Amino acid sequence: MSGGKFEVGTAVRTTDDAHLTGHIVEDFGDLAGVEVIVDAQQTAKSRRWAVALDDGTMVFLNDDGIEPLS
Length: 70
Hints:
Helices cover 0% and strands 46% of the residues. It is mostly beta strands.
């Protein structure tokens, strides 16, 4: 990994109780933390990483939500 703990292509595991595995597919860098409009009633803070999980789903997480696989 160049310069950091994570980069696109890194194999990771989620740090929640599920411990799901996958690969980072996108780095949103400076956009992380920006408020995103979900719909007319809801907004959310964007996350740093897009992770394609091995079960076929996609999740969006920050550094504290993933750990590198050895």
